[in-house]
Amino acid sequence: MSSGRRANALARLGLTGPRAEEILTTLGWWADDKPAPGAENVMWALARSPDPNLALRAVDRLAGADARTWKNCDAALRRDVVLRGRLFALLGGSTALGDHLVTHPDRWRRLTAAAPDPCTDVATRTATLLAAVGADPAAPLAGAEGGAAAAVTDSEAVHALRTAYRDDMLALAAADLAAVSEPSLPILPLEDVAAQLADLATAALRAALAVALAEADGAADPGRLAVIAMGKTGGAELNYVSDVDVVFVAEPADAGTTRLASRMMRIAGEACFPVDANLRPEGRQGALVRTLDGHVAYYKRWAKTWEFQALLKARPVAGDPELGKAYAEAVAPMVWTAAGRPDFVADVQAMRRRVEEHVRPDHADRELKLGRGGLRDVEFAVQLLQLVHGRADPALRSPTTLDALAALASGGYVGRDDGANLAASYRFLRLLEHRLQLHRMRRTHLLPAEDDTDALRWLARSAKLRADGRHDAVGVLLEEWRRNSRRVRRLHEKLFYRPLLDAASRVSAAGLSAEAATVRLGALGWVSPEGALHHLRALTGGVSRAASIQKALLPVLLDELARTPDPDRGLLAYRRVSEALATTPWYLRLLRDEGLVAERLMRLLGTSALVPDLLVRAPEVLRLLAAPVTGQRDELIRDPANAAATLRTAVGRQPDPHAAATTARSARRHEMLRIACADLLGKMDVEQVCSGLSAVWAAVLQGVLASALRALGGATPPARLTVIAMGRLGGSELGYGSDADVLFVCEPLDGASDHEAAKFATTVVETVRRQLGSASPDPALVIDADLRPEGRSGPLVRTLTSYREYYARWSEAWETQALLRARPVAGDMDLGRRFIELVDPIRYPDDGLSPTSVTEIRRIKARVDAERLPRGADRATHTKLGHGGLADVEWTVQLLQLQHAGDIPEMRTTATLEGLREAAEADLITHDDAEELAAGWMMATRARNAIMLVRGKPGDQLPRSGRELAAVATAMGYPPDGDPGVFLDDYRRATRRARAVVERVFYGW
C-alpha cells in the first residue's frame, strides 16, 4: 500500500499525528497497513477517543514507562472492553490524568472490569485516603475527641494524599468517560459523578484534618473542630476542578482550633484543591473559626440574605460529627425564614446584579456558568424558590440543585415540563463544564472560541456528540449549546411566573396555591401580592385569544417588571393599557413578536406614572419602541424642528380653533410620550429633552394661534399679534410639567386704533387660552402671562407702543431680568423681531448694572428663596429653590448677562447653558466654575423632569426615600435595582458644588 493510502487509512481512524504509524507498529497494533490481528477492537476504541492522537501519545509514554507493566496492560486491553473504554477515553480526554497514569503506570489495573467500583460510598473513600496518610480508619475522625492523627506529616503527607486523591479521581473520571470510546459501556449520570466528586472531597478534607492534627506534634488539646461544607461540596454536586467552600465551627474557638483549621486548609490546598473559607461570618475579615453560639449570634443579628442562601447547602462533612450536626440544626430554621426578612427583595435583586456584573463582556456568549442562560441562572432560580417556599414545605430543602428542582416540580411550584426541561439543560451545561475542566484539570467555565475548531471538536467528542445529517460534531456542539442556553433563559422566566398564571387562572387544583402564589410574588418584589394576583386573573381570565397571548407573554413581562422600581404600579399600568387597547388588533401581536418592545414597555410602566397615562391615548407610540431597522434612524429620536413642522401642518388643516386645539393636544401628547420614552430609555440627554418639549409647545401655540386669527380676523384683521416666549420656553428649557410663560404684543392694522387692536388681540388670546386650557387628562397646557407689565393687574395684551412707554418709564429690575429670556415664538414674526429690538437696550445695557442694581437683584433673590420655598421642604433636595438648584444657577447667569452682555454680544442668549459657556469663554468666570454650575443645573433639571415622569404630576421636591425615590433614580439613569442613595449623594454633591460657585459669583461672598 502506498504511503498516501496508509495515511488515509489512519486518518479515517482519526490518527493524524506525525508518528502515529510508527507508534502503532511498535505497540503491535498495526501491521500491513491495517490493524494487527487481535488488535482490531483496541484500534476502534482508540479511534473513538475524544482525541485519538493525544491518547496514542499517552499510550506511547505509558509503554515506555515500564515495559513489564505495559505488557500486562496490553494483554488486558485486547480482552477487556471496560479497560479499553476507560483507558482510551481518559487518555484522550484529560492530559493531566494521563500524566498521572504515566507517572504511576501500575494504576491501569484500577480501570479494569475486575477493579473495585470507582463509584463507591464516602466511608470507603475516607478509609482509603486516611490509610494513605497512615491514620486509623476505624478511629474517630480528626477534630473530634480522641480523633485519629496521621502517621506522616509535611511534604510526605502532602505527596501521599495527593497521589491517593488522584488515584481515586483517575478511576472515577475513566468510568465517567468510558462510554465515549466504548458505546456498550454505561453512561454515568451527571448527578452521580458530581456526588462522587463531593464524597471524594469530603474524604480528602478528613484526611487533611488528620495530617493537621499530627502536625500539632503533641501540642495542647486543640479542642473540637467541625468542618461544614458549603457551595457545591455541601450540595453534593461538585465539579472536577473547584474550590471547596467550608465554614469552621469550634469548641473552643481559640488559637489551637484556628491553627488546626489553617493547617488543614494548607494541606488540602497543596495536595488536592483550594479550600475557601470566605463564606464564613464577616467573610475574609472575620475570624476563621467561631463557636456555635458565635455563629448563631451572627446569623440572627448581622447576616444578609445571600448568606442564608449560601447556608442552603451547608452540610457537616469532617471533624466532630456532633458539633457539625448541632450547627446544621441551629442554622436551618433561620434559612427557611429568610424570605420574610424586610430587605429580602432588595438583597435578591442585588444578588442577581452581582452575578451579571461578574461576566466579562467579551466572554458573555461563551460563559457556561455566569452568562445569560448559564448554570448560575438555574441555580439562582432554584435557590430563590427554595427560600420562598421551603418554609412551608420541607420537601424542598435539598441542598442539591437537581433534587430541589425535582421537588419543586413535584410540588407544583414549577411546571413539570419546565422543571424537566430545565434539568436536562442543566445536566448538559454541567457535562460541558466537567469535560472542559478534565482536559487539563483547570478551573474553567469558558467554551472555546468558535474559530478554535480543534478544541471544539475535542469537546464535542468528549461529550459524546457526533455529526448528524446537518452538522459535523462541532456544529452539533454549538447548536446544542445555543439551544440549551436559550431554553434556560426562557425557562428562567417561566420558572418564576408560569405557575403564578396557573394559580391566577386556577387551571389546575394540583398546581401552585393562591397562598403560595402570593408568597412568591412578595418575594419577587410586589408589595401587594394579592393585588398583583388580582391583576393577573383579570389579564388571563377566560378563553379568548387575548387571554392566551397574555398567558404566553406574562412570564417574560413579569420578569422584566420585577426588575423595575415599582412592579405593583407597573402591573396595574399594564392592565390599564391592555384593557384600553383591547380592541387594537396589533397591540398584543406587537408585544408577542417584538421582544424589545415588551421589554422596554415594562421598564417604562414600572418606572413612570406619566407614560401609561399618555399611552392609552397615544398607543401608536408603542411601535416606536421597536429596534430600528438596520440603516434607518431610530424613530424615538426626531429633530425638534421636523416634529414641530409636522404638528403645525396637522393643526393647520383644521377648520376652527376648537378642532385645531384638539389636534394640537393630540400631537403634543404623541410627542411628549415619544420624548418621555426616549428620555427614560436613555436615548436623549437633558438638553435634547428640553429642546424637544419647548419646540412642541411653541408649535402648539403657533398652530392654534394661527387658527384663531383666521377664524376671528377674517380677511382684514384689525391688528397683527405676536407671542413672546419668556422663562423656560424662551430659553428652550421646558420640562414635562412646565407652564408656557409668554407676553402678547399687538400692533394696529389698516387705520385701527390701539384700543381696537388690543381688544381684537385680547379676544384672540382668550380664545387660544380657553381652547388649550379646556378639560383634558393630559398634562395641563397652561399659558402664563404673569410676566407682563403690571403683572396680573395689567392688560393681557399691549401694543408695541405701550410696551415701549412702559419699559421707558416704569420697568423694574425683575422685569429687566425677565426680558433676558424673551424671544418670539408665534404669530407675526416681524412684530416679534421689532419687540426684541425694543427690549435689547433694556436687557443688555451698554453701561452694565450699577452697584445699587446688583444689590437690588441680590436682595430680590434672597427674598424669593426665603418666601417661596414651601413649608417643610428640604432646601438640599429642592430642585428649583434649593441650594445649587435651578434658581441659583439661572440667577447667576442672568446677573452676568445684565452686567456684561452690553459689551459682549456672545452673552446675548436666552439659554442658561449657552450663557455659561460664553461667560467662561469671556473669562467672566473660570471654566471650572462654569462646569460646576452647568452640572448642578443639569442635575436639577433632570431630577425635576424625573419627578414629573414618575409621579405624573409636577413637583420640585425630591422624594426622601422609598420606591418613589428609587423610581426617580431609575428615571435619571441609575440601575433600577441599585441603591437610590447613590443618586441622592450625587445630587447633593453636584448642587453643593454649584452653590459654592453661586455664593462667590452671584453673592460675592
Notable features of this structure?
1005 residues; mainly alpha; Four Helix Bundle (Hemerythrin (Met), subunit A); Beta Polymerase, domain 2; five-stranded mixed sheet; 12 strands; [glutamate-ammonia-ligase] adenylyltransferase activity; [glutamine synthetase]-adenylyl-L-tyrosine phosphorylase activity; nucleotide-binding; multifunctional enzyme
Topology:
Elements: H1 3-12, H2 20-27, E1 30-31, E2 34-35, H3 40-47, H4 52-65, H5 67-79, H6 81-93, H7 95-103, H8 122-132, H9 154-181, H10 190-214, E3 224-229, H11 231-234, E4 244-251, H12 255-271, E5 275-276, E6 289-290, H13 292-301, H14 305-311, E7 315-319, H15 321-335, H16 344-357, H17 375-389, H18 401-410, H19 416-440, H20 453-462, H21 473-505, H22 514-523, H23 529-540, H24 545-562, H25 567-580, H26 587-593, H27 595-605, H28 610-615, H29 640-652, H30 657-680, H31 686-713, E8 719-725, H32 727-730, E9 740-748, H33 754-772, E10 783-784, E11 797-799, H34 800-809, H35 813-818, E12 823-827, H36 829-843, H37 851-868, H38 886-900, H39 912-921, H40 927-951, H41 962-971, H42 980-1001
Parallel strand pairs: 4-5, 4-6, 9-10, 9-11
Antiparallel strand pairs: 1-2, 3-4, 3-7, 8-9, 8-12
